[in-house]
Design goal:
The protein is mostly beta strands. 11% of the residues lie in helices and 41% in strands. It has a 5-stranded antiparallel sheet, covered by helices on one side.
Length: 64
Amino acid sequence: MDIQKGDTLVMKKKHPCGSNEMNVLRSGMDFRLRCAGCGREFMIPRSKAEKNVKNIIRPEENKD
């Protein structure tokens, strides 16, 4: 799965705050994610994150 810095992940399970969207701050063996609802930052192993991703929203690139 190709997840990059700046992507927004829609997860299968909700964060305790109620949001299921996470922003990717860092990718590698672990992901550093920020909850789009409450702003909490946390680290999660790549294997666990990839298993729980429902959809990936990529930021739109400027096409000039």
